[in-house]
Design goal:
heterodimer, A: alpha/beta, Rossmann fold, two-stranded antiparallel sheet, 21% strand, B: Rossmann fold, Immunoglobulin-like, 11 helices
Amino acid sequence: MVSPLFDERSLRKLERLALVAQRVRAGSIKGERRSTKRGTAVEFADYRPYARGDDLRRVDWNVYARLERPFVKLLEEEEDLAVHLLLDSSGSMDWGQEPVHKFRYGLRLVGALAYIGLGTGDRVTVQLVGTGDARHSAVAHRARFGPVRGTGQIFRLLAWLAQQSAGGVTDLNAALRTFSQHGARPGLVMLLTDLWSPTGFQDGVRALLAGGHEVAILHLLAPDELEPPFSGDLKLVDTETGDAQDVTLDRPLAELYRRRLDDWLHGIEGWCHGRQVHYVPVCTDLPWERLILHTLRKKSVIR
Amino acid sequence: MIGWLAPTAIAFLALAVPIVLLWMLKLQRRRETVSSTLLWHRLLRDREANRPWQRLRKSLLLFLQLLVLLTLVLALARPFQPVPAVTAGSIVVLLDSSASMNATDVRPNRFAVAQEMTAEMIRTLDATSQMTIIAMGNQPRVLASATADKATLQAAIADARPEQGTADWSAALALAAGAIRQVPDSQIVVISDGAGFDLVADVVALPAKIRYLPVGQPGPTPNIAISALAVRDSPVGPELFLNLIQSPATEPGTVALALYLDGALYDSRRVTIPAGGHLPLTWSNLPTQTTVIEARVRTEDALALDNFACAVRQATGERQVLIVTPGNLFLERAVANLPATIAMRASPDALPPADQYDLTVYDGTLPEMPAATPLLIINPPTSTLLLPVTGSFSDTVFTVAASDPLLNHVDLAQVHVARASSVIVSHWPDVRELVRAGGGPLLLVGEPDGRRVAVITFDLHESDLPLQIAFPILMANLVEWLSPRMPFDAQEVLRPGDSVELFPGDATEALVVRPDGTIDAHSLAAYSSLLVRPEQLGVHQVLLDGSLVGQFAVNLFDPAESDLSRRESIAVGPAEIVPQPDQEVGQRELWPWLAAAALLLLLIEWAVYHGATAAPKRRSGSQFRRPL
């Protein structure tokens, strides 16, 4: 039986996170953007419903008097950030046993990050990358949640997340390009993926950067991907593509695997560093709340 | 040139076929699902460059397995290399284990070198040969008898130890002659330094070729020895005589000599042994209570055994017995034939002073005032204060024979007595009636007036006892009880292997404490004797039922053994035997090397296999392991 995505303990962790989230904001992009739009700093932009945690001084009391519902006045200078949480849902993400299962770990991370985003008034979109072709709007619609704003959406989001599953073959580049081309509002794109994509991910990330997004890659790998637990004469079958590969895994080859894995990870890190892309390698045996509260803040993905 | 003792075993090489067939069978791979084979594809692309090595490594296991099989099969085929050998065929090795073989002129000592020479002969023994090993000590011992089993022979030679005495060459050669008598074309190999061999006179005719392998440094080896140490009592106190010898005797030699009396240093001096090789020394007026005398020469010569000598002062073991009899041939013969006994006969009319004797025997006579020694009274004729006689009786059928140690081995069943005297001994303390007839006691012992007295109440001439085998035994037991001997009778000069006879009297346990502290224990019947053969040099202590009764000294005192010059030839009978180069062809078997190589290859194969499949130890993905 599959354990619930967010059980009692996880939900309590999320609540604790919400308290912390008062001091945490998604993305570091905001300050930069504000400096470029200095001339229009105090212009009115929009209203949005009051959410718990909003500064009471920003409630438009006139509107409240008229509609008897609290609305917060948004100024252009404080434009709410668009946070896009892209979760790779390819077959390779369906890997590992609870609690280190990559896709479910990703779902929990998405839930937590969305909670933070919603709690700080950001516009949050969750998109599953790779489930079918995102260009077909119907499919894309099913694979997307949001954009939403305000903490009131969180339980809907969690319910939606609980229904998602991973599978199928993904061309990560194509999926990211499609996402970028469909005119998503520029903002913070957090891509949660294992990067096991034969065609690579670089073109897709370039497209995101070209679309004005700030990109953070959370690279999820399960412990047994870092350290293959088997040896001997094997036929390795790719769970995503079904490709088979004959391998005699002996000590030298295991050594070689470790070296190649290290090279690959270093390569990704170097590539991201050169393009101002946040890169956070995550082993799924790391508790997700620790990842949010410590690692991502340390890496300036959130602040 | 390699020969084979079991060439048919090479057929086992056919086992290579199933091994190769097993390797040719298609490898069954285990299916493992992985999240992605992306990295594995790249890996195998990398491995393409290493493909030849990988193939080789894979076939390395096969190669090693075939090599293991090959070495094992070759070992089974028992290859050998022909090597020059001392001898071949049926071989009797006479291994000198006498004192001189302890010499250290060759390292570690001559005996160890001789052992190694024998071991090498065993190694080159061909498959058809067999070997007997006899250690020549003061008694020749067969270490291994006519066997071709090299392991048995090697074990026997490894267990052999040098002795401290003189080799009994004649006995060893006689034993060797007996060993080869059955086997034609036998050879005798003498491994020795030759010391003492030239003294062998009565060599049996040996029906075999004799080879001599000399041991030791060629030429003379300097050695200083104590060749004699004797102590004797004189009116002014004990006198000590000591003789030092040196070999070779060409030049004078100076050594430090130390003399210990009962463990305390008595004299220490530097002495010079003149050219000629002998230096006699004497000490007189030694302390009268001295018992154990030890002499040590401090020198760094090649043989340490003869740098020490010891002597023990002790009373003589003989006893003097006075037989007062009008004439009794049986009695006189029986007493005179007892060991360590000097019998004197006296007539009842002319009695010599009896106090210098250890025992007085009165046969058919008993004076009113008998001698103040232990007494054996036979057929008391008249009543005396000591032994009242009330008459005689003729009811002499034995009714009781006590189970007494004095009657050990004495069978009285066939003894008949015509008449016996009735005596009264009720006033004697500790009286025991050993044999009783219907009319009264026939044999009794007691201890009146603080001395031991035994009484035979009948005339030996009126009995058939003297004609029985029981008579000398009974006399020996009675005399032994009346006048116990010294517990042992050690000759003045004892060498290793000489026998010492112990007379334990009524003791039942005898212990001999050797100089090195080890104990030779014997349990024995009363009034029996025991022969011990000390093997070690030094002072031995004799304990009977736990109490020290005496000591005896064992010394080498053998100029032939102390002369360490290696003899370049030995004379056996009329023949002069000189060392000859190896003439025979032996076989050095190679299978132990092959078996060891097979084991080594097996270990390598195991290591290669496990090295190839062992799970990696270090976790990869160091980025994932950084403190996050």
